[in-house]
Amino acid sequence: MTSFIPYAPLNVPKPFGEDIWIVDGPEIRMDFGPGSFPFPTRMTVVRVDGALWIHSPIAPDEALFDAIDRLGTVAWLVAPNSIHYWYVADWQERYPGARTAAVPGLDTKAKRPFRIDAWLGDAIDGWPEPVDTILVPGTTVTEAVFFHRPSRTVLLTDLIENFEPQRARSALTRSIIRLAGVAHLRGRTPPDMRLTFWPKRSAVRAAVEGILDWDCERVVMAHGLPYDSGGAAELRRALGWAV
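and the corresponding structure tokens:
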């Protein structure tokens, strides 16, 4: 079991390794059948040569902006998958000099417009050298997965969800978490998302094999408890369906 305690305090950068911080944000609700499902939110901040690379920006908050400014200058904003982009526009307004990288297709799929300067999966001029990228192509959701080599941390969004049922406020939510197989300690790719990858399974397999080759110790996901040790084994377990 991980010793790292996420969530509170919210909107505060918390060290997760060398030059890397996670920021737990407010809960949002996503449509789920006739109702909606509560999701905790999280972004990750990496500092490279004094400049900041921000993965999956969360809801804007002035105190959070001030804390980010104390860490360094924001150089990159990253929309890492097809549904994690909503607040990028707010961060672009605050940091107009930052470049934005997004997964392919968001220029037409995004329901809230924002500027895209580079496509993840392509060679990008000025990209932080210590951050490796692998694109996992899907039919509904495409996700870029990153490896910060100095801290040996893999950064993903929805490819693994690791909810803690005891944090859920309703018995129905706890049941859904367990039935979907995305409960800590056995977080994994949600079953509905796995189905969307099936038509591109060969490309997905190749991408996941590349992810599993990384010398990973820690794993940060957008929803649920991160792994602050044993990350390589957790990735093999949670993503084994793809290989």
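(Above: one complete record from the training split.) The CA atoms of residues 170 and 176 lie 10 Å apart.
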